[in-house]
Amino acid sequence: MPSSRFLIDRLLRPIDFNSATSIVELGVGTGCITRTLLERMSPDCSLTCVEVDEEFVQACASIGDDRLSVHQACATDLKSVLSAGGVGAVDYIVSSVPLSILDDDLADDILEVAQSCLRPGGKFLQYQYSLTYLSRLTARYGGVRLGFTLRNFPPAFVYECVQRG
Description:
The protein is of the alpha/beta class.
């Protein structure tokens, strides 16, 4: 089931679309967040999407926006995907990866790679349906804000994590 517009608005609220030059999306799913990012991004901002599911990759690639780069890969491969595209440290990473259903080691690897790809002061934005990852994210980042939206099924928590710098 796609994320509601209320969840998408809450998830993307911390992004300064006027100053962002590079955004990453992990786990594009049906593309509803991807489309909203593209609608709000400036013309000179790039969006790099990483998704493991081939059907979702093909659907996202068919959006047809020059600012969009879609890659079928695991989120743990983010650093090499960015490097191959000539993208350095990014301003924002928006994640829909369902961390709580992944193996703990894989989830930790994804969080580590994502953190290593953010510029100082950049933000990692993640939604989940539980508070399972709050302590792990708080230990990694200088500041973590927790949001919540009831207007999604199921209701969701939104983590806003700021990269130390």
